[in-house]
Amino acid sequence: MPEIQTSISYQASTMTPPLKQIAEDYGEYLELLSACEKIHLLSVLAFWQAVDTELQETTEDETFTLAEAIEDYAADLPGDALAALKCLEGLTDQACLDLLVSIANQLREGVYQS
CA 113 to CA 15: how far, in whole Å? Predict the structure, then answer.
């Protein structure tokens, strides 16, 4: 594993059930996912957070769920990306940001399935 800690539990302030599930299914470093799958995770999670944040800033009643982000995502999700995203149901905004940081660091350090 890499010299710098980039496991989900290192980045996340608390290991929420969705983070525990994705780590259980794909490894503490999500090392069972390819670089492409991780980039798609980043894209969908960032898209979800961007739209949801925009809705919260403009209308207090509307939210945008991760399930809606997956459905509205423009590209086909490769390999295990869709399954990995589906196990994140119930992810909080803070846990999502933690996961985004963790995945970005893992990609920078080359921690992914080749």
Answer: 23
Q: Are 39 and 107 in contact (CB under 8 A)?
A: yes
* CA dihedral over 108, 114, 38, 99, signed as positive or negative: negative
Q: How far from 61 is each of 45, 71, 90, 91, CA to CA, in Å?
A: 21, 21, 18, 19
Could you give the CA distance from residue 45 to residue 42 in angstroms, rounded to a whole number?
5
C-alpha pair distances (Å), 20 with each of 9, 24, 49, 107: 9, 6, 20, 20
Record the pTM.
0.88
What are the domain boundaries of the chain?
A: 8-108
Q: Which of 88, 90, 71, 89 is nearest to 103 (CA)?
A: 88
Q: Is the model's pLDDT at 1 over the cut of 90?
A: no
